[in-house]
Amino acid sequence: MTALFEVKQRHVMETPLIVCDRVGHVYRSRRGNTTALSDVSLAIQAGEFVCLLGPSGCGKTTLLNMLAGFISPSAGNITIGRLPIEGPSPNRGVVFQEYSLFPWLNVRANVEFGLRMAGTSFKERRKVAKEYLTLVGLSGVETKYPFELSGGMKQRVAIARALATKPELLLMDEPFAALDAMTRNALQVQIRAIHQQQRQTIVFVTHNISEAIFLGDRVVVMSSQKGVVADLNIDLPRPRRRTSSGFNLLYEHLERCIGFEGVE
Amino acid sequence: MRSVGRYFNSPAGLGLFGIVAFGVMWHALSRSGLVNSTMLPSPAVVAESGWLLLTNGELLRHLSASIWRAEIGFFIGSALAILLGVATARLQLLDEMVNPLIQMFRAVPSLAFVPLAIFWLGVGETSKIFLIAWGVFFPVWVSTYIGVRDTNPLLARAAASLGAKGWRNLVFVVLPAALPLILAGLRVSLSVALVVLVAAELAGARFGVGYLIQVSQQVFRVDEMFVGLIALGVLGFAADFVFEQLVRLLFPWYRAERGTRSLRRERSDE
């Protein structure tokens, strides 16, 4: 068992890209305070593909939102490249679970959006948009509007849009959760290939155990009560087969880590 | 008989039948002797005076005067409303200062300002344009305000993570995101403009469809009053149609977006 996955050894030599130090978050509302996350410590190396796995309400999306700069931690602190996070930045691309393409822009303009905000020239924008649309396998739909696309295509455009500003960190919040199983599998293969090619750091939130094992170099299991409950390096050879015995052993192990929390 | 039945099966055929039946009944009532035919002229008489007013150019003169006023008032009113709507939704201090004032003015029906506007600005163009702009302002302000204030938080986050800030964020994200609501407000205010226009023209004017109706009443020309009413109906219908077509042409995503919005809301949030 231990040969397949070992508890992550903290890298002493390398400085991690992301450091979360005893991070917590409390949502305040008139009906009282809800603790979404408490005492999470985590270090992520540059270039790692990390999956945050856990049931609904375990705080994984909250952690992602803090990394994106949408909310700030109410306890502890997070640094990226040793610097604290000060709001959202095109240096950290985000792909959301819900379709978040701008409905008034066509596919090309959606992908170009980040570059347009940065004041990049028209010619350069066109070039980069074409490059990233090709990367996600979507050539020829540049002038279509989001409402004309399928769910899988929308998420691929969203990925291209997030990548076009060349962020050092890509944050993905259950991006494939709303897609059908076959489209989801295809996009999982694709995002792996993109990571292989581009080597940016990816933090991928999911509640799907198989998705986490298939994608991650590392799987961090979170629980609402206990924060990080498991942190595993996944050393299965690639391409990973969902039916291999190693895959299934990991599946069972992770299932036990999550327990029945959140499953009514 | 079978071919007649086929016509009745289509909605257009039925609609046409309804119109013809209405016309026949109107004609019969006017000729029956039950009502004074001066008070209720038959559709044929109305059509005849309509044709006369159309060919001698009088109807067009009134129509163009009305359309011009409505247009200018509509543009001034909606432009100011969109500007102030965006400003109040984005600047909290301004909002807190101006909002109670706008709500107060909004509570007064705009038609109630007709006598005051005429007293202050006379029966000329200024009073009419002012009144239309005034009436148009409020629905457009409300919808712009709500549209800008309640920008879809998901899109706002997506934009922020792509580096949208300041004026670029306003122009490329906030305004287009609010556009469906702004357009809805503009569409409502199109009919408001027509209502205020006619009220202002009835209260005193030298030209315009409202004026035509008013003058025809004074000389007992009920047929010409009907011509005026029909002209207003056509004008309102045409304005709405042109608006809809422009929206469809300029914002091809808009209709589809409206359709998917309710679906999106149904999907449960994890």
What do you see in this structure?
The complex is a heterodimer of chains A (264) and B (270). By secondary structure, chain A is α/β, with parallel strands linked by helices. In chain A, 33% of the residues lie in helices and 25% in strands. Chain A contains 7 helices and 10 strands. Chain A has helices spanning 60-68, 107-117, 122-135, 151-163, 181-198, 209-215, 245-258; strands at 18-29, 32-44, 49-53, 75-80, 83-84, 92-95, 169-173, 201-206, 218-223, 227-233. Chain A has a 6-stranded mixed β-sheet, with helices on both faces. The relative contact order of chain A is 0.18. Chain B is 83% helix and 0% strand. Chain B is built from 12 helices and no strands. Chain B has helices spanning 2-9, 11-31, 43-55, 58-90, 92-107, 114-121, 125-149, 153-161, 166-203, 209-218, 222-250, 253-266. Chain B is globular, with a radius of gyration of 24 Å. The termini of chain B are far apart. Mean pLDDT of chain B is 89; it is low at 262-270. The chains are: A alpha/beta (264), B mainly alpha (270). The interface between A and B is medium-sized, with 36 and 26 residues.
